[in-house]
Structures are given as structure tokens and as C-alpha cells.
Amino acid sequence: MKKHKDKILVVEDEKSMREVLKILLEGENYEVTTASDGFVGLSYIDKDIFDLVITDMKMPKADGFEVLKKIKEVSPDTIVIMITAFGTTETAVEAMKLGAYDYINKPFNIDEIRLIVKKAIEKKRLREEISILRQKVETTYAIENIIGQSPKMQELFRLIPRIARSNSNVLIIGESGSGKELFANAMHNLSDRKNKNFVTINCAAFPEGLLESELFGHMKGAFTGAMYNKQGLFEIADGGSLFLDEIGEMPINLQVKLLRVLENGTFRRVGGTNDIKVDVRIISATNKDLKEEIEAGRFREDLYYRLNVVPINIPPLRDRKEDIPLLVDHFLKKLSGTPRKFTPGAVKILIEYQWKGNVRELENVIERVVLLTDKEEITPEELPPEIKRYHIEKGEAKQMPELTEGGIDIEKLIENIEKKYLLKALEKTGGMKMEAAKLLNLSFRSFRHRLQKYEIK
Fold this sequence. Notes:
The structure is a single chain. This protein is of the alpha/beta class. It has four domains: 7-131, Response regulator (Rossmann fold); 165-315, Rossmann fold (3-Layer(aba) Sandwich); 318-399, Helicase, Ruva Protein, domain 3 (Orthogonal Bundle); 410-453, Arc Repressor Mutant, subunit A. The chain is built from 19 helices and 16 strands. A five-stranded parallel β-sheet has the order 2-1-3-4-5, sandwiched between helices. It is elongated and about 115 Å long.
């Protein structure tokens, strides 16, 4: 594989010096571009990204400081080395303050500049490697609790890191229990705000007055029970992220105050008179159709568009059934202290279940099973009654004939089903009619009549 060459731009108005540097650096296997003055150098910086720039201090049209400032504005990772024949301590200090890596006086030693360039490039490469390693570690940490191999989940895994790098507000849409907070937390951990607070609040958990106080804080005496000044969650989340779960439950009057924060980044505490400015990224979530809420007059349209800059749809568990075996294994390891597993039959039943409560419901079921049985191999018998019942009903539904244009004989169908359960009850009770009648919730007389009707002996 061909080795990548580090790219260097030399900005020098003195032709002989420019050519010497080009020959020297190309001899060290760098890709070198030269510019005859600061203005030309600036045009190159606009068009390309360089690993390192060597620029003279005093040049016509644009000096070295202008070049340095431009680089730090458009390509902050580029290393800048400044050279000059008119160096002073003051100019060296100013260059370093503006972000220059080093400052060299002319005339310079060839070996000296060769060594400085080598160390600068090595430092840049090391910084990039650390950044990549940190990103890998953070990505693993951030999404380790989000399990999925289905195409829909894999698409989300590709999308989340990209969204995390922006400051745009995000609206996560998904059913209850689908893992909306996990995705919000992952976005925070993968963002530049990761070292600041990730603050969460469920908007459905507080009455209007208390929710306003929780979000914006209050001043002492603002209302009955306000015994002291209190910071709100917006202040606590300053520089970080605020997750507003169940945003569709926020009262309409409070939505106006939230809109103000989104528009200008300021708010007032309850009972306060001073504007407080914050820098907070809003990640909100809902299991409601907010467009329907807007139509019903329960949600502000302008707030919706402020929150819904980047929408993310979390699929329900029933739409990603291929993830269920992974989730079952994950929760079993998490909740059980000993090596255990579900039999293939039990897993099959869990896969076919509809999971209205999504991943949260699945975790609760696994926890219940772990607590109620000590078996190393968990069979269908250990599953909760509602899941076994669904499995039985679904199996029976599969056996029922389709209602086609030709129609069906409903009386005969009912008779066949009735006869089938009479035989099952007798089989289960070993032929004891009284017990079989009880299983079918029939009187003995009614049970005996049916046996005679179908000539069952």
C-alpha cells in the first residue's frame, strides 16, 4: 500500500529561500506546495487542507500573521511554523499566542528546520491517533447498552455518531420502552459536550407549576414552599445536553417559555427578573404524534419545528424481531449470576410475542423468569402466563381457515373446535368426565349432552 505523504505549504516571498525549503522537504518525502506571497498562500488554504504550513513573517499583500489567523480559523489542526529575518521577542510571543507551533529566525540551520518539521508532524499524527482511539472507546461505551443487529438498528448506529457531532436539536420518536433515553445518552457521550452534564427530565412526571420550577429554577418566595433560590435544569445542563422525555405532555403555557430558550438561549427563574443565558443542546422524545397534537391545539407548531431539526425514529421491538435473541442473551447475563440460557423453543416463543412495552417489557420478563426459576435451561414452561397464552392463541389462529369469497361453514367449524376440546379434556383427565367438564367450565349434564351429540365414547 502506498504510504500517505504529509502535505506542507511553504509561503515565502524570497524565491531562493522558497526553492531551498521545497527541495529540502521533498527530500524528506513530504508533498510540498509553495506560494510566492501571503495572498497566494491564503488562496491555497481556502482550497486545500495542509498538515503543516511554513510561512514567512513579512510579505507583501498579506503577512505571516494574516496567514496564521486564517489557518486557525479554517483548519485549526494544521500546524504553523513561522520564520523571519526581523524577529523580536514581542513578535515571537504574539505568534505563539495566535497558535503558532514554533518561531524560527533567519538564517536557520538546515538540520534544525528538518528536525522541527519532523517533530511537528509526529506530534500531529500522535494527536490524531489519540483522537481516533478516544472516539473508538467513547463509541463503544456510549452504545454498549443499545443492542441490535437488524438493518434498522444498524442504520441508527451509523447515524447517531454523525448527529452527535452537531449542536442541532434532536427529536426522538418511539414507543414507550423502546430505549429513547439510551439513544439520547449515546448522542451526548459522542458529542463535544460529553465532559459537561447530561440532564434528564420526564415532562409527564410533574404538574405544570413544578415542571416550570424544575426546568428554570425559582427565587425564594416565588410561590408557597419556595424557601430558597434554586437552579433549574437548564442552568445545570449549561454547556451540556438536556433530555426532555415525553415532551408531548408539556403544558401549552410552558411551551411558550421553552420556545424562548430555544430562540435566544435565555430564560428567567420563576419569580426572577434577570435574564440568564445558557448554551444547552436539547434532545427531546415523545411516543405521541405531535402533528396530531398540533391539530388538537395541545402543542405549538413553532415549538415543534424548533425541536424537530433532526428527527430520529426508534423502531418498536416487534419490527426488529431478529434483535430479540441478542437482547435475551444480554439481559440474562446482566440479571443472572450463573450461566443460564433459554431453550430454542422458549426463544422462539419470545420472538413471536408482540412486546407492546418493547425492550423495557422484555427486560422485565427476563428478570421475572430469573427470579422465579433456578433452572439452568429455561423452557417454555417457565415463561409468564400471558406470553404462553399468546403463543397458544396464535397457534390456534394459524389453524383456522381463511375467509375466502367462497365462504366457510361456520357451524361445522364450531363443531370441529368443540369436539377437539372435548377430546383434549378427556385425555387430560384420563377419561374422568366430571373433571373434564370442570376443565371446560361446563356442567356435567351439558358435557354429557355434547359427548352424545358428537358420539364420543
